[in-house]
Amino acid sequence: MDKTYNKHEKLKSKKLIDQLFTEGKSVSVYPFRMVYLETIFEDHVPFKTGVSVSKKYFKKAVDRNRIKRLMREAYRLNKTTYFNNITTPYAFMILYIGNTKPTYNHVEQSMNKLFKKFTNVTPKQTIDEKTT
RNA sequence: CAAGUAAAUCGCCUUAUCGAACCAAACUUGUUUUGGUUAGGAAAGUCCGAACACCGGAGUGCAAACAUAGUGGCUAACAGCCACCAGCCGUGAGGUUAGGAAAAGUGCAACAGAAAGUAUGUACAGGUUAUGCUGUAGUGAAACCAGGUAAACUCUAUGUGGUGCAAUGUCAUGUAUACCAACGUUUGAGCGCGGCACGUGCGAUUGUUGGAGGGUAGGCAGCUAGAAUGUAUUGGUAACAAUGCAUCCAGAUAAAUGAUAAGGGCUUUUUAAUUUUUAAUUAGAAAGUACAGAAUUCGGCUUAUAGAUUUGUUUAAAUA
């Protein structure tokens, strides 16, 4: 997997996003919250990821754009270290739940923590699902 | 010089690494390669005016509601812009104005004043038997004759259908089936023919196929070559118009136009040194580098904006 984040890796389907929020599980490391769900994609992409910032805390479009860009960048550069070993396809939605404008370093560190937590959590759950 | 004043322009740059979207070409037809393009002056507020689309009426008049309001011009249109007149502000350059009508009617009016109008007080004088009456004084912008106010109602003139690209059109996976047709199934309720049975016709139910309808997820069109931009000439005081030449300049949709690092500008503060005091130059340090992100498209208006630049123009008094 390369350090890319193109059209096919973006979570776009409205249907899937609704499903994600109703059925998905979540891990959170401040200031992020990641909702995830196991699915199968028609175009055989391993992961699809979306990014979201609340309009409630950031009223200006410029600020929202900036934060989303930082998040996408952090995802793009760090996903290879965590997700290359995972074979099951997942849909992700990463939410920014803080209320201050972050710096890039801050975003990257938090994102790393978030992914670590995710990789620790997921295998257990899959085992649980199989047993029960 | 300094302080204004009016108008216009710009609004960080370079390099490296890793990326995103769209378009074109190529072939090895791909999550390929190569090339090109990729946010603003306000993209913002959504306040006016249009284009375009659909709905309604499809004609005319009146009324209501809303908007506009000096005169003339510009414009596709406008509540916009330009010129001129008038009032007000400023020494001035200049700024600013909801600048139609008070002899149609209704209302309102601070302070002062007895009273701002279903009034007639006080003092003095005149007059009278006396009162009513007449004059003067005092308040105020205005005292019975009217005036002010229409960013009060109102009147006059002019204009105005509604909803908005989530408009609208089109393709249509899947799902469900009140619809229609054909064929078929059955422990086939019930009904008709018949005295009853068999039989036969209709048929609730159910299956398959086809059609029609509906229009969800999603795709495509609308979707960017235009009242376009730049430039020159001509006409016009100007807004603006005409003509010639050149150019193609974002099209995303959980929403691209980026991230990081290094260096350099610019501004402010501060330290040191030098020079002719104010100040300037050089070197170092610290901080800052705005407002803000297209979403159908144009013309305006309004609001936000670190800092920089250019041009025209004004300066009374005081001080040097």
Written account of the structure:
With 132 residues, this protein is α+β, with helices and mostly antiparallel strands. The protein has one domain: 2-Layer Sandwich (Ribosomal Protein S5, domain 2). The chain is 46% helix and 20% strand. The protein is globular and about 35 Å long. The model is unreliable at 124-132 (pLDDT under 50). It binds one RNA strand of 320 nucleotides through helix 1, strand 3 and helix 2. This is Ribonuclease P protein component. Consists of a catalytic RNA component (M1 or rnpB) and a protein subunit. Belongs to the RnpA family. Pfam families: Ribonuclease_P.
CATH architecture: 2-Layer Sandwich
Helix/sheet category: alpha+beta
Contiguous helical run count: 3
Largest sheet composition: 4 strands, mixed
CATH class: Alpha Beta
Organism: Bizionia myxarmorum
Protein name: Ribonuclease P protein component
Catalytic activity: Endonucleolytic cleavage of RNA, removing 5'-extranucleotides from tRNA precursor
Family: Belongs to the RnpA family.
Please describe the structure with a list of short key phrases separated by commas or semicolons.
132 residues, alpha+beta, Ribosomal Protein S5, domain 2, 3 helices, 20% strand, disordered C terminus, RNA-binding, 3'-tRNA processing endoribonuclease activity, RNase_P_CS, hydrolase, nuclease
